[in-house]
Write a structure and sequence with these properties.
- The protein has helices at residues 18-28, 57-74, 129-139, 203-213, 248-255, 316-325, 357-376, and strands spanning 2-5, 77-80, 88-91, 107-110, 146-151, 153-154, 169-173, 191-195, 221-223, 237-241, 259-262, 275-279, 285-292, 295-300, 335-336, 354-355.
- By secondary structure, it is of the alpha/beta class.
- Strands 9-8-10-11-14-13-12 form a seven-stranded mixed sheet. The chain has a four-stranded parallel sheet with strand order 4-3-5-7, with no helix packed on it. A three-stranded antiparallel sheet has the order 1-2-16.
- Helix 4 (203-213) packs across helix 6.
- The longest helix has 20 residues, at 357-376.
- It is elongated and about 125 Å long.
């Protein structure tokens, strides 16, 4: 175990140790001798030289110790290597701990945020299992054995097997675990178009693109007015082909979760953080946009004409337009536990230090109570 101070400059507070010494000396000087008449006629003798003497030595030492501990507390002491090396067992939610054979000397916890103890109820919310494994590996000291119990089918996995700093014991338990269905985005986004009269020449290109997605392109919600929201509640994508700002009702519709692709002549609303989303072969940005509250705001950077945007005539235009308007597909989180065993050889992290400030604060509180008892006990003199 190694002791260290995170803020050693705070030890300058040790200079306060002079205060109790000065106070005891100053209070002692208040005791002045009184002449008695019967002693006045005695022969005067030279007064002996007095040595510096402190009264109430135990009280003085206790006050000095209090100040020293307070200076040490300000220096933020920590202890490295004080963690125990007892084995750790992490149990994935969905397993019944009563059916598991856990080592009696091991520390058993749920593989859930905060790593609650196994004697608490099993977490019911979905967990990011891979992220929790990496967090646990970075938190535990490198010499602590780790054993992970998981069901045959995992939820909360990410794109690749976790890479940990240690070799863990990965045990697959034959038990049924609740599987959270994965919500998938619709294959074809429902689209509505609102356009101004001067933008009508752009409609054939958009109709052709939507028709290539699905035969439903003939039922496309197209309106010449630019102040009507999509009539179908299932429509979450809107093409706005008109210059000028988006009307407030449509802006509220977007903020509630819709997606709008604006004309090049329409400004982005305040609060939107644009980023390049589509570039042409020369690297020029064709579409920019980003999040707006719970929805998305995108904008063409050029007019929808073959002269300004030649990509309108290319085969990739329908596919790219569909990708822009479709909701992001969530990443798969289901995996077979036998194929998801973590790999070893990742970077190791230093063991976290144990903070000693809470223990020092408790000791300072006890010593302060003892000092007050000594200073205020019955029968004590007038010394400090």
């Amino acid at each position: 175990m190694n002791f260290a101070l995170l803020l050693p400059a705070a030890l300058a507070a040790l200079a306060a140790l002079l205060l109790p010494l000065l106070i005891h000396l100053a209070r002692r000087s208040e005791q002045r001798p009184t002449d008695f008449a019967a002693l006045r006629w005695l022969r005067h003798k030279p007064r002996p030289r007095h040595r510096i003497r402190f009264d109430e030595r135990w009280l003085l030492l206790l006050r000095l110790l209090l100040l020293a501990l307070l200076a040490l507390w300000l220096a933020r002491p920590v202890m490295y290597g004080a963690a125990t090396a007892r084995p750790w067992v992490a149990v994935a939610p969905g397993l019944d701990p009563r059916t598991l054979r856990l080592p009696p000397d091991a520390r058993a916890h749920w593989l859930a945020p905060g790593f609650p103890k196994i004697d608490t109820p099993s977490p019911t919310q979905p967990v990011a299992l891979a992220s929790l494994l990496r967090e646990l590996d970075a938190t535990l000291p490198t010499d602590v054995p780790l054993r992970v119990l998981v069901p045959a089918q995992l939820t909360g996995a990410d794109g690749e097997r976790p890479l940990l700093s240690r070799k863990i014991e990965w045990q697959v338990v034959a038990a049924a675990a609740p599987v959270t269905p994965v919500a998938r985005a619709p294959a074809v986004p429902k689209l509505a178009i609102r356009y101004a009269t001067e933008r009508a020449p752009s409609l054939p290109y958009l109709r052709a693109a939507v028709s290539s997605w699905s035969p439903q392109g003939a039922a496309l919600d197209v309106a010449a007015t630019t102040s009507v929201a999509p009539g179908d509640p299932g429509t979450r994508s809107l093409l706005w082909l008109a210059p000028g700002a988006l009307p407030a009702p449509l802006l509220e519709w977007v903020g509630a979760g819709g997606s709008v692709l604006l004309d090049a002549g329409a400004p982005l609303p305040a609060g939107a953080s644009p980023a390049p989303l589509w570039r042409d072969a020369d690297g020029a940005v064709l579409v920019e946009g980003g999040r707006y509250r719970d929805g998305r705001v995108l904008r063409f950077t050029r007019a929808l004409t073959p002269q300004a945007m030649p990509v309108l005539l290319e085969p990739e235009f329908p596919r790219r337009l569909r990708e822009l308007l479709s909701a992001p597909t969530p990443a798969p989180t289901l995996a077979l536990a036998s194929d998801y065993a973590p790999r070893s050889g990742g970077p190791a992290y230093p063991a976290p230090a144990r903070d000693l400030q809470p223990w020092l604060a408790l000791l300072i509180g006890l010593l302060f109570a003892l000092e007050r008892w000594l200073a205020c006990r019955p029968g004590r003199g007038t010394t400090p």
